[in-house]
Amino acid sequence: MGEIEKMTLESESLIDDRLNKLKELMPEVFSESGIDFDKLRLELGDEVDEGLERYAFTWPGKADAIRQSQMSSTATLRPRIEKSRSRDGEDGSFDSDNIYIEGDNLEVLKLLQRGYHGKVKMIYIDPPYNTGHDFVYKDNFGNSVDNYKEQAGLAGQSNADTSGRYHSDWCSMMYPRLRLARELLTDDGVIFISIDDNEDRNLRILCDEVFGEANFVSQLIWERAYSPKNDAKYVSNSHDYVLVYAKSIERFVIGRLPRTDEANARYKNPDNDPRGVWKPSDLSVKTYSPDSDYPITTPSGRVVEPPAGRCWSLSRNAFRERLQDNRIWFGPNGDSVPCIKRFLTELKYDGMAPTSIMFYKEVGHSQEGAKELVSLFDGKGYFDGPKPTKLLQRLITLANLLMCDKEVIEV
């Protein structure tokens, strides 16, 4: 990148960005002095909540956390050419598509807004789990450089569970980072956040507020341990979570996993259908409809009815069409309850839908991640809880990242 020595990226204010969007949608609610809230209420009509009681998630320090996300940053990003490495592994070169930024992640997220606002397809966050020993961020940037050096060099202060602000401090740390992360996502973007039992309930509520409850995708379970801890006081915990939220659930398309031999083995072709292998699918459904409740006569002459409280998934006419097209199976003797033939070649998607449990045999375990870190840094483990590469590869697959040319951020 030539003789670049300094890159100034003064961040845009989150308030200014949202005001500009509101002006585009409702210019009539703005006056010379700002927003006319009386006009805004009239425009919103019944959607305005005037009640005194409402459901809300709050904690001491939430107002300050909101202000932290709204404040712009005047810091700069300085390229360290001497510590950079090219695509070919050459030191001191700057031609890689990847960027590693060292600094407090809240301020960095602000700096990224100008260049990457709405351009990031996937974000992965691995925050402190708040176990009582994790670092607590002190988000006061009056002296940001010294603050960062103090935090990075001292391994931080523990957030002891005897503190009256045990959960509040953690929520205040996470909230502005989540708000800024959302602003970076593309409309079809997705965020993955690792967490354990200590704060998973609070993180879920925080994400519901920031991303919208309707944009919740899943709470994945990662089997991080392959053997129980016999010294556990109550239950040996062998899993962590990965929360998944979309920027817009209507736009996000989850990546599917490659089909396995085990999955394909479920498809057979007992009647030698020229369309290939298929697997039987239940013809009955729970949602009852009188139009789909009718008797069916099997080839053997036996009359069958839908199970009690259920009906057929096909209307009479649709059933006849499937029957004529040889898509109904009555068993090898023509005497079984009918089922629908689902052909492997006609599946809507090429891959398999991911399940909510990620087993360590597929995505690795915590010790595997620790070994990878030690190997990468010549026998030294610089931080706790590194995630295995295979886990991140799985999340990249779920983000559909391999099929796009947009950016990825790991915080």
UniProtKB/TrEMBL annotation:
It comes from Bifidobacterium adolescentis JCM 15918. Residues 79-90 have a biased composition (Basic and acidic residues). InterPro entries: DNA_methylase_N4/N6, DNA_methylase_N6_adenine_CS, N4/N6-MTase_EcoPI_Mod-like, SAM-dependent_MTases_sf. GO terms for molecular function: DNA binding; N-methyltransferase activity; site-specific DNA-methyltransferase (adenine-specific) activity. It is an enzyme of class 2 (transferase). Belongs to the N(4)/N(6)-methyltransferase family. Keywords: Methyltransferase, S-adenosyl-L-methionine, Transferase. Residues 68-94 are annotated as: Disordered. Residues 120-398 form the DNA methylase N-4/N-6 domain. It comes from the Bacteria. One of its GO terms (biological process) is methylation. Pfam families: N6_N4_Mtase (PF01555). Its EC number is 2.1.1.72. This is Site-specific DNA-methyltransferase. Signal peptide: none annotated.
